[in-house]
Amino acid sequence: MGGVGKTTLAHEVGSQAQKLNLFDKVVITTVSQKPNLERIQDQIAQYIGFGMKNEQGRRSEQELWLRLKNEPRILIILDDIWESINLKEKIGIPIGDDHKGCKVLLTTHRQQVCQAMDCQNVVQLGCLNDDEAWTLFEKKASLDEFSDDSIKILANQIVKKCEGLPIAIAPLGSALKGKTHHEWQAAYRRLKERRLTEIEDVNEENAYVCLEASFDYLKNMETKTCFLLCSLFPEDDEIYVENLVGYAWGLELYKGMDSIKDVRSEVLASIETLKNSGLLLDCGERHVKMHDVVRQFALWIASSRKEISFGTVETLPMDESFKHYTAISFETDQTDELPKGVGFPYLKLLLHGGNRLMETSSEFFEGMKALQVCALNHLLISLSTFQFHMNLQTLYLIDCKLSDISMLGKLKTLHILSLSRSDITELPTEAGDLENLRLLDLSYCYELRRITPNLIRRLSNLEELYLHGCSSLKWATENSTKRESYSSLSELNSLPKLVVISLDISSEHLPDGFMFRRLWSFDFCIGIGRYQKSETCPISRSLRINKSVDACKQLLEDVESLQLNKVEGHPNLIPSLDFGFRKLTSLDLRRCRSMQCLIDASKQQVPITALSNLRKLSLSHMFHLEEMCNAP
């Protein structure tokens, strides 16, 4: 059953298999209820250093199959399979007589999957026995031999209620860690009084009962809402925390917070609480996941409590039964049609996902008078659709084809706007009317060539601006004519509240004497291409500079990651660039031919804290470098 520990054990098997040198490579990928076979292939290929794309397009399953046959000893772990899959034809995995050195371990909720896929060894994983369950709970709740006996008695009773299910034991133990005797009593009372007949699947309900206790132990409604928002993302999705920040702001979740920076801090704190409670899983920098049982529980909570009314739509069309929802997420494919004529008078948040470009009409949105947050992917949509949504505060139109772009200025209530990866070629003058805008994300708008002059300076409340990956965007230079006028970089320094910028620019777009002012966070590529596609990362302080550092001198004191390429006129890093780089963790120097050492303390004293946090140093083609440090 879900939550019994299949994924945890599968990962441990992979780890031990490598430590014991049973395999040269171990690949782990999640299949899930709606398998994305291309994503699975990409993950397997990435582990073996094989690109699934080439100049001709996407490689075939046969090509991956042939490449995997070259791996002498490889273990492929396929986690969470729901239906039988032909591994050779659908993915390109050679097994059995095709390749004796390739072994596959799979996990599934359903025994019939094992039978259908001719598994040679089937291990049925039951719940923990009493001793194992107690050991796990004891560890999570930090109980020891010195703990109060009355609490231990209650703990034993609570563990029995969990019936050996780790996904119930771990969060509940974490939630009760350090609590008083009265709180332990209250927790047990809630578990005992719960009517187990309310849900058909008794085993699942036992998990839900314990998870509900963990959920109820969360101190504030904001953290609970963040948890429920995570359930609106697709199953097994790696949830980008920054999206939650935009949703939280648009829903006005954190009252009294006056800046996006502060709301981000609150959301990150809520996420840490949820991870520490076992309700969310960490999966890389600024990403989290939900265990499938936890997600099912979250959706159950959201649909069973009238004050929340969240839900996901598995199949279209939506009907009248969804009218009372305050938040809805759904996915479409090329055969789906969005419903028309269904009113959603209470809807505050709408999320749409999909991988196929789909056309939509304003009729779908007409009844959403209370809409505050709207996040849409892969739609062909007109911006005039939103002009009558007078309370819309957060709008994400990701990978969309947009028409009526001049209508942007009508959306005066917007605080957060993302048109990332959209097809816009110009940010029109009307966008300057968005006087309440706090965050503007135009990252990876590859067709964006022009922002009209004086537009940026009119966005007086703007706090965060993301323009990375806009490879065609031009800025005003001394040679610009009036006919082809562009926005000037100097407009950025005229925004009083701007504290976060990411930007890619060529060196020739920098006006003489221009300097960026101090910022809380920044990610600049100046004269250097951004080769790796990354999501917005607003907590970084990163500079990649080609030839001249003059425009960024104000930022050097706070920089955390620095790359200098072909920078001349500096015989050393310190004191020539005047700062001790106390916050610098990563330094990459390339072809800086005039640099003879990193630190020169022969003529003047250098701060003892210079480069004190440096963790990574890369030196490439530094032919005149004589020594690292010229000092006693």
Automatic annotation (TrEMBL):
Give the superkingdom in one word: Eukaryota
Which InterPro entries does the record match to this protein?
Apaf_helical, Leu-rich_rpt, LRR_dom_sf, NB-ARC, P-loop_NTPase, Plant_NBS-LRR, WH-like_DNA-bd_sf
PROSITE patterns according to UniProt: LRR
Q: Name one GO biological process term.
A: defense response
Q: Record keywords: Nucleotide-binding included?
A: yes
User: Where's the NB-ARC domain?
Assistant: 1-141
Q: Which UniProt keywords apply?
A: ATP-binding, Leucine-rich repeat, Nucleotide-binding, Plant defense, Repeat
Q: Does the keyword Membrane apply?
A: no
Gene Ontology MF term list: ADP binding; ATP binding
State the similarity comment.
Belongs to the disease resistance NB-LRR family.
Instruction: Report what the protein is called.
Output: NB-ARC domain-containing protein
Protein source organism: Gossypium mustelinum
